[in-house]
Amino acid sequence: MTTTDRGMPPLQADERATLDGWLDFYRATLAQKCDGLTDEQLRTASVPPSPLTLLGLVQHMAEVERNWFRRVLLGEQAAPIYDPAADPQGPDGGFDLSEATTFDSARATWEDEIARARANCAVRSLDETSSFMGGHVTLRWIYNHMIGEYARHSGHADLIRERIDGATGA
């Protein structure tokens, strides 16, 4: 997957292509915010007192992809990727950084979860439901939730990146 190829979501498409387009747009936005930075910069919490980093956002989004497209959509018992004992956010946290984690490894993990998500969604209709919180949730709802999750964190990433090296936009 080339996440930095950020194309405009389709302006005239069916619902599925529109949802896929916006989700991929925001995935690529997060990747772009990380491009060209060193591991040290990607570990920089640049908006004190927040400990939020670009590397932590990438790890978090890998956990979120896993949670919604594997645990919820498939009912899979997928273990957390990052140490849940170290992250009070729980199994979809991932914000805490380990000294051993590099950006390359975190990005590869994130991209693997995205590839699995795409495969898991490709064979399902938007109306397909999965068990969630004592009820059911549609794949359509999951897509919309994920778009919102990425959009929110893309804003965080934009502010963090601007504080690191002044880069804005895109």
Description:
The chain has 170 residues and is mainly alpha-helical. The chain has a single domain, classed as Four Helix Bundle (Hemerythrin (Met), subunit A) (Up-down Bundle). The protein is 54% helix and 5% strand. It has 5 helices and 2 strands; from the N terminus they run ααααββα. It has a two-stranded antiparallel sheet with strand order 1-2. Strand 1 (129-132) and strand 2 form a beta hairpin. The longest helix has 27 residues, at 139-165. It is globular. The mean pLDDT is 90.
Our Rg estimate from Cα atoms comes to 16 Å
Number of domains: 1
User: What kind of sheet is the major sheet?
Assistant: 2 strands, antiparallel
CATH architecture: Up-down Bundle
CATH superfamily: dinb family like domain
By helix and strand content, what is the structural category? mainly alpha
* Major beta sheet, strand line-up: 1-2
Q: Could you give the order of the helices and strands?
A: HHHHEEH
Oligomeric state as shown: single chain
Share of residues in helices: 40-55%
Assigned CATH class: Mainly Alpha
**Number of helical elements:** 5
Distance from N terminus to C terminus (CA atoms, Å) equals 19 Å
Average the pLDDT over all residues and give the rounded result. Answer: 90
The CATH topology assignment is: Four Helix Bundle (Hemerythrin (Met), subunit A)
